[in-house]
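worker-3 :: picked 4-phosphopantoate--beta-alanine ligase
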Amino acid sequence: MSDIEIPESHPRYQSLLTRHRIEEGVEKGITSRQGLIAQGRGEAFDYLLGERTIPSADEATRAAAAHLLLADHPVISVNGNVAALCPGEIVELAAAVDADIEVNLFNRTDERMRAIVDHLRDHGADEVKGLTADGRIPGIDHERAKVDADGIGSADVVVVPLEDGDRAEALGAMDKVEIVVDLNPMSRSAQVATVPIVDNIVRAVPNITAHARDLRDAGATREELETIVVEFDADAALEAAERAIRAGADDE
Ligand code: ATP
Ligand code: MG
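worker-3 :: tokens ->
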């Protein structure tokens, strides 16, 4: 992000940098124009949260890390917004928990699929799934149902940052542990997740990696990881996030 002309001291530096990345993503053919709107919706919630990771989101992130460490076949799903905002951080998370990366788009075009795969490779990914598209998510329409059979199709744990509500629901029905990152605790994606992380993906993804490394370095046993997973309460996390957002709105 060398071409950005915002001083780091600017109070809205992070937010402006994020916008700049999304804009660049659209220019490069990675992010769809719809993605700009999704980003705008997310920003509004982030503003009310105080653009910080609230404690309940940090707890969710730790539970997500525990799930990923316990998984047999974890997969991280990447769309155009995720690819534009935190490609290097996705690659690092995948390495930290030994997960596959799969490109999965709401508005799937071959061109955009390839642009995202190349972009992730430029950021250090070696294998990126998603182009084979020989698997289907049951219950949703053809184009949006496409996944790789040996990727999301056979994953036991999936990380779906910014997934749309419909597909999040269908993935959940496939008996997968679903980790959703979404700034809107009222969105269907967050509501159907096994672990909803109500935080900006630019903070959440590196935070999952940090928790995974901490747990591993501390020598956490399977039993200890399972305890973290069982003790996590998704409804309580969603309620805490909604309270924080409503309190933020009252402060304005
Ligand atoms: P529903 O889930 O209720 O069906 P939707 O998924 O169709 O709604 P969209 O506006 O299309 O709603 O999805 C965008 C979602 O992504 C919003 O909930 C928004 O808060 C979230 N979002 C956008 N940018 C970010 C970001 N950088 N980090 C985390 N979440 C984000
Ligand atoms: Mg949603």
